[in-house]
Design goal:
Layout: E1 2-7, E2 20-24, H1 34-44, E3 50-55, H2 59-67, E4 73-77, H3 87-101, E5 105-109, H4 112-125, E6 130-133, E7 135-138, E8 141-146, E9 151-157, E10 162-166, E11 183-185, E12 214-218, H5 225-239, E13 242-245, H6 247-251, E14 272-276, H7 282-288, E15 293-298, E16 311-314, H8 317-327
Parallel strand pairs: 1-9, 2-3, 2-5, 3-4, 4-11, 5-10, 6-10, 12-13, 12-14, 14-15, 15-16
Antiparallel strand pairs: 7-8, 8-9
Helix pairs in contact: 3-4, 5-8
């Protein structure tokens, strides 16, 4: 199904050049996130120069990697107040750069950071953001999923400044082996922000769910947290995989909600996805159906997940998973 939506908002602009600004995030180890590299891939498809924006006290160490990702230049805002990407600090900076330099497009990953920053920038600029795009048709027309991914909407914007977030699983990360682009410092922006970062807790020291090539996910069929840990952890360890879960498993307290895969969780597209005791609700399928190879293990032969699985195994997970782990 394809729906066509047209947003009619008219603005005048003296800028004739089409230039794109991409927000770059880094992970705990100080490397550019795969989602940011996917956002650059999407931005380059607009066909015009792409500028990367790197912020935070460690921006100097992140900028060189971003500069080799096919961008025309990298802007650096080095300040500790941007370290944890508080939207109340980042959004005014982005707004200021867009206004001063005349960027016509702002692209960000559809991450928790992007989902927080993008609406604030849009509200300040009085434009309509386009979220979670999976395809770029041209400079003002995009495709995004709706109805839990069961339909695709083609959205055309007539805003003079287009703001969009990119679903990382829909665009391959750009390589960081190109020639280094110039790096420029930009001034920070003073705000009256009263929000401050307090602390963070690392839930898992394993592989990152959003970027791992292999994901093993557990569902309600695992019955309880003890069984979830007992079966999923050894399997993930053998496969060097990230652990994920369905919403039912998260709501039942089997694992932390940061591991939830689905429409309201993380959207993933690993090389291999193994679903254990997951029935395959629409909400969950929306988060993993783009996986290259889908393996489903469930005792119910009529479970919906078998409809999207490349390989299906009907059996008792309490017997299948230990045997599978042993053979691996």
């Amino acid at each position: 199904m394809s729906l066509s939506l047209i947003a009619r908002r008219y603005f005048s602009s003296s800028k004739s050049a089409l230039n794109t600004l991409v927000f770059i995030e880094s992970n705990a180890s100080g490397a550019t996130t795969p989602a940011s590299l996917s956002a650059i891939t999407a931005a380059t498809q607009l066909g015009k120069p792409v500028t990367a924006l790197v912020v935070g006290s460690n921006a100097d160490s992140i900028a060189p990697q971003a500069s080799k990702a096919g961008v025309s230049k990298v802007l650096v805002a080095k300040d500790a107040k941007y370290d944890h990407y508080l939207a109340e600090e980042v959004a005014p900076l982005v707004e200021n750069i867009i206004k001063e330099s005349g960027y016509t497009h702002f692209i960000t990953p559809a991450s928790s950071v992007g989902k927080s920053v993008l609406p604030r920038v849009a509200a300040s600029l009085d434009v309509q953001p386009i979220s979670d795009i999976v395809k770029i048709v041209n400079e003002n027309t995009f495709v995004r999923p709706i109805y839990a991914g069961n339909a695709l909407a083609t959205v055309k914007s007539k805003d003079s400044i287009i703001l969009a977030s990119v679903r990382a699983s829909a665009f391959a990360p750009v390589a960081t082996s190109g020639s280094a682009a110039p790096i420029e410092e930009v001034s920070t922006v003073d705000t009256d922000n009263r929000t401050e970062f307090v602390s963070e807790e690392l839930v898992s020291d394993g592989f990152d769910l959003s970027s791992s090539k292999i994901v093993v996910a557990g569902g309600r069929g695992l019955k309880n947290k003890a069984t979830f840990d007992e079966l999923m952890n050894p399997l993930a360890s053998k496969l060097k995989a990230a652990i994920g879960a369905s919403r039912a498993a998260v709501d039942s307290g089997f694992c932390d909600n940061s591991l939830q895969i689905g429409q309201t969780g993380k959207i993933i597209a690993p090389e291999l996805y193994i679903g254990v005791g997951i029935s395959g609700a629409i909400q969950h399928l929306a988060g993993m159906k783009d996986s290259k190879t889908i393996v489903a293990i469930n005792k119910d032969p009529d479970a919906p997940i078998f409809n999207v699985a490349d390989i299906g195994l009907v059996g008792d997970l309490n017997e299948v998973i230990p045997e599978l782990t042993k053979k691996l």
